[in-house]
Automatic annotation (TrEMBL):
Involved in protein export. Participates in an early event of protein translocation. Pfam families: SecG. It comes from Caldicellulosiruptor changbaiensis. One of its GO terms (biological process) is protein transport by the Sec complex. One of its GO terms (molecular function) is protein-transporting ATPase activity. Keywords: Cell membrane, Membrane, Protein transport, Translocation, Transmembrane, Transmembrane helix, Transport. The chain crosses the membrane at residues 57-77. It comes from the Bacteria. GO terms for cellular component: plasma membrane. This is Protein-export membrane protein SecG. Coiled coil: none annotated. The keyword Membrane applies. Its main location: membrane.
């Protein structure tokens, strides 16, 4: 029973991790990044930074939970 619960939990965490990573904005580089950076300072870059910081925090939390559940699932399957 624990194996099924941990497997479902790991699947949900994997989907959540994919979604949170895809929601994050990429790091721009080059000429297009400098143009977007200028527009970002004009239109309020602090709002975007707080959202990016929040998504980054959620990414770390979900990744840590995924790691712990993966180890627990391994131990349950192995029989330790």
């Amino acid at each position: 029973m624990a194996k099924i619960i941990l497997t479902v939990l790991e699947l949900l965490l994997a989907i959540a991790l994919i979604i949170v990573v895809l929601l994050q904005s990429g790091k721009s580089a080059g000429l297009s990044g400098s143009i977007a950076g200028g527009a970002e300072t004009f239109f309020g870059k602090y709002k975007g930074r707080t959202l990016d910081a929040m998504l980054g925090r959620y990414t770390w939390i979900i990744a840590a939970a995924f790691f712990v559940v993966s180890i627990l699932l391994f131990l349950v399957i192995r029989g330790c």
